[in-house]
């Protein structure tokens, strides 16, 4: 994982923590949004929409809530503007 991916991972973990009301340290890279983080489809959709302030076009992503945190990073890292 390069520096951009690490930075992106930290930013996205912080956004996840804010969305579901947990501490960043409670989120693991291999957590799935649906099973481990218990995000409903609407919560996951809201979370993806919140990534727009990072330059991520959530509508262009074809991802499911069964993705892991790290897999999401891989999907969106190319869209995030530094």
Detailed description of the structure:
The protein contains 3 helices and no strands. The longest helix is centred in the first third of the chain and has 18 residues, at 3-20. The protein is an all-alpha fold and 82 residues long. The model has no long low-confidence stretch (mean pLDDT 86). Helix 1 packs across helix 3. It has helices at residues 3-20, 41-50, 69-76.
Features:
single chain, 82 residues, mainly alpha
Secondary structure layout plus pairing:
Elements: H1 3-20, H2 41-50, H3 69-76
Q: What is the helix content?
A: 40-55%
Describe the oligomeric state of these chains in a short phrase: single chain
The structure class reads mainly alpha
Computed Rg: 11 Å
Q: How many β-strand runs?
A: 0
First-last Cα distance: 16 Å
Net shape: globular
Low-confidence parts: none
Tally of contiguous helical segments: 3
Task: Give a summary of the structure in a few sentences.
With 82 residues, the chain is an all-alpha fold. Helix content is 44%, strand content 0%.
